[in-house]
């Protein structure tokens, strides 16, 4: 997978990575200040950061953040257990998979956004509608991960455990859980990312509050500084969350020595 | 020395199989995998089952382990019928080591005990004894990926013996190893057998392996899987690896070869 790198190599690679981020930031700042681009359309980065500071101090915007965060947490806590448990059941039982698999496959391919107007008619435009939409959107992402988690378990290991008298319960807890942990964590990570995606998208489509609504309003009124500030904030939060969960996933992968000889 | 077994001086029969049958499928598609298999292993005996691929020898092992139900006949260990896995009577070693990659060697050996009610300290003590028996006393804290193929299989043997079973079933346990390691493992297995005096049923497709290790060789033929000959190997124990090149061993091997090659060619 990864080849051994010398300390110097690793520092060179890290410097380049940091350099890429830094040069984008510098180019962005310069293009606004030196009028390479219209500063009304692409305001300098420093202005955007200042605006982000002002927005974070503003009670109204903080209220919007709280609404979005609450919606995301609600969707996430519903969809991750729901998706993983049903994925587990489908992966474990051929019978269930034959019954529900085809419908699931079909729904997976459909863009969920086409249902948004129907959801609004059915559930209104408040908190629950956003959560329901985000759950539907991310459910079809989490379920395949749950199925893959079950299918990643070696049938021979199960036979081995059975021969030593393991009960079904012991096989689930002692074999399935550690073997499938990285894929379970993938499910958690994808559940979180797609919950946020669904919530913000639903807010942008029709809402009276939330970050998505603010982003849409500022975009429509050409308030580029506020627009970029909000976009940058969501981007940074998402990247941090994704990277931390990925790090935990990798930690488990090496902790359980998965993919190595047994 | 460790006491692995409260030894009985008599050669009591440990494993008995009566007319074991196994049929897969139904009607016209039915496949007769095993036909009228009878066998008997007495205390401390090492019996090898040898036969070509597809003769049902692994199915036979699965039935004795209680992992698969026979279609007919019965299996008894110490007179008790086997229909489900009985970990305190039967230990199993598979073709692959099948160790848990996230557990160390000693934790893997403890695994069968950890499924039951054995206290942790006793588990560790018992696993240490077995680690010592298979000659891996310095590798207890190693993870499977840090061990060689032969070492992993030795951990699997220790795990198979940890609950002090009445019989150890070994399903082509050295099939995945290279020639040199395999030969060394033969010596190792004989030494373990010598020390533990556990009854062993050893499944293989290698004639040399069967003759060198076993007291008795059951020769199987295919379609349907059945026992065509029982050959007692009267080579003295303890056996040395030098025996492998001996005329006596070669003669027994050739006799079995004639038996299995004649009808099919």
Defining key terms:
heterodimer; A: 262 residues; mainly alpha; MetI-like fold; flat; B: 265 residues; alpha/beta; Rossmann fold; 6-stranded mixed β-sheet; 4-stranded antiparallel β-sheet; 7 helices; 10 strands; globular; disordered N terminus
Structure description:
The complex is a heterodimer of chains A (262) and B (265). Chain A is an all-alpha fold and 262 residues long. Chain A has a single domain, classed as Orthogonal Bundle (MetI-like fold), CATH 1.10.3720. Chain A is built from ten helices and no strands. The model of chain A has no long low-confidence stretch (mean pLDDT 90). Chain B has 265 residues and is α/β, with parallel strands linked by helices. Chain B folds into two domains: 13-89 and 166-261, Rossmann fold (3-Layer(aba) Sandwich), CATH 3.40.50; 98-164, no CATH class. In chain B, 32% of the residues lie in helices and 25% in strands. Chain B is built from seven helices and ten strands. In chain B, strands 6-7-8-3-9-10 form a six-stranded mixed beta sheet, sandwiched between helices. In chain B, helix 6 (207-213) crosses helix 7 (247-261). Chain B is globular, with a radius of gyration of 18 Å. Chain B starts with 12 loop residues before the first strand and ends with a helix. Residues 1-9 of chain B have low confidence and may be disordered. Classes of the chains: A mainly alpha (262), B alpha/beta (265).
Distance N to C terminus of chain A: 19 Å
Helix % of chain A is over 70%
Instruction: Write down how many β-strands of chain A occur, each being a DSSP E stretch of 2 or more residues.
Output: 0
Helical fraction of chain B: 25-40%
Percent in strands of chain B: 15-25%
What's the count of strands of chain B?
10
Q: Could you spell the SSE succession of chain A in H and E letters? A: HHHHHHHHHH
* Total domain count of chain A: 1
State the assembly state of the protein chains. Answer: heterodimer
- Count of helix runs of chain A: 10
Q: For the record, what is the CATH homologous superfamily label of chain A?
A: MetI-like
Largest sheet of chain B: 6 strands, mixed
CATH class wording of the largest domain in chain B: Alpha Beta
Low-confidence stretches of chain A: none
Strand content of chain A: under 5%
CATH superfamily of the largest domain in chain B: P-loop containing nucleotide triphosphate hydrolases
Q: Uncertain segments of chain B of ≥5 residues (pLDDT<50)?
A: 1-9
Mean pLDDT of chain B: 89
Briefly note the structural class of the backbone of chain B.
alpha/beta
Secondary structure class of chain A reads mainly alpha
């Amino acid at each position: 997978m990864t080849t051994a790198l010398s300390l110097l190599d690793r520092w060179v690679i890290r410097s380049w990575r940091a350099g890429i981020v830094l040069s984008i930031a510098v180019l962005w700042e310069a293009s606004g200040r030196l009028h390479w681009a219209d500063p009304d359309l692409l305001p300098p980065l420093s202005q955007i950061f200042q605006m982000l500071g002002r927005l974070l101090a503003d009670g109204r915007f903080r209220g919007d953040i709280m609404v979005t965060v609450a919606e995301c947490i609600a969707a996430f806590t519903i969809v991750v257990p729901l998706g993983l448990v049903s994925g587990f059941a489908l992966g474990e039982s051929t019978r269930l998979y034959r019954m529900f698999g085809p419908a699931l496959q079909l729904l997976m391919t459909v863009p969920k956004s086409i249902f948004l107007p129907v959801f609004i008619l059915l559930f209104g435009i408040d908190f629950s509608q956003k959560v329901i939409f985000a759950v539907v959107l991310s459910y079809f992402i989490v379920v395949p991960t749950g199925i893959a988690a079950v299918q990643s378990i070696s049938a021979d290991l199960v036979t081995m455990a059975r021969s030593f008298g393991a009960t079904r319960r012991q096989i689930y807890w002692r074999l399935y859980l550690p073997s499938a942990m990285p894929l379970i964590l993938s499910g958690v990570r994808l559940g979180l990312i797609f919950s946020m995606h669904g919530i913000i998208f639903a807010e942008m489509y029709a809402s009276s509050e939330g970050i998505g609504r603010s982003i849409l309003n500022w975009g429509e009124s050409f308030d580029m500084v506020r627009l970029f500030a909000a976009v940058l904030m969501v981007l940074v939060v998402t990247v941090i969350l994704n990277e931390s969960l990925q790090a935990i996933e990798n930690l488990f992968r090496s902790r359980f020595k998965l993919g190595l000889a047994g | 020395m460790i006491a692995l077994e409260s030894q009985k001086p008599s050669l009591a029969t440990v494993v008995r199989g009566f007319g074991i049958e196994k049929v897969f499928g139904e009607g016209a598609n039915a496949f007769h995998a095993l036909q009228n298999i009878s066998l008997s292993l007495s205390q401390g005996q090492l019996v090898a089952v040898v036969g070509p691929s597809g003769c049902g020898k692994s199915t036979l092992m699965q039935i004795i382990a209680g992992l698969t139900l026979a279609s007919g006949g019965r299996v008894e260990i110490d007179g008790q019928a086997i229909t489900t896995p009985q970990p305190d009577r039967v230990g199993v070693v598979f073709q692959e080591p099948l160790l848990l990659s996230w557990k160390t060697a000693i934790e893997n050996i403890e695994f069968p005990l950890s499924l039951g009610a054995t206290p942790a300290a006793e588990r560790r003590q018992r696993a240490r004894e077995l680690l010592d028996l298979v000659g891996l006393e310095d590798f207890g804290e190693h993870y499977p990926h840090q061990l060689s193929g032969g070492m992993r299989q030795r951990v699997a043997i220790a795990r198979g013996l940890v609950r002090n079973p009445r019989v150890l079933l070994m399903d082509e346990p050295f099939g995945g190893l290279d020639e040199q390691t395999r030969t060394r493992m033969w010596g190792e297995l004989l030494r373990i057998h010598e020390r533990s005096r556990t009854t062993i049923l050893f499944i293989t497709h290698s004639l040399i392996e069967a003759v060198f290790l076993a007291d008795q060789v059951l020769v199987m033929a295919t379609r349907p899987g059945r026992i065509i000959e029982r050959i007692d190997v009267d080579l003295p124990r303890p056996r040395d690896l030098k025996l492998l090149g001996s005329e006596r061993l070669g003669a027994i091997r050739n006799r079995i070869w004639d038996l299995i090659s004649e009808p099919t060619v």
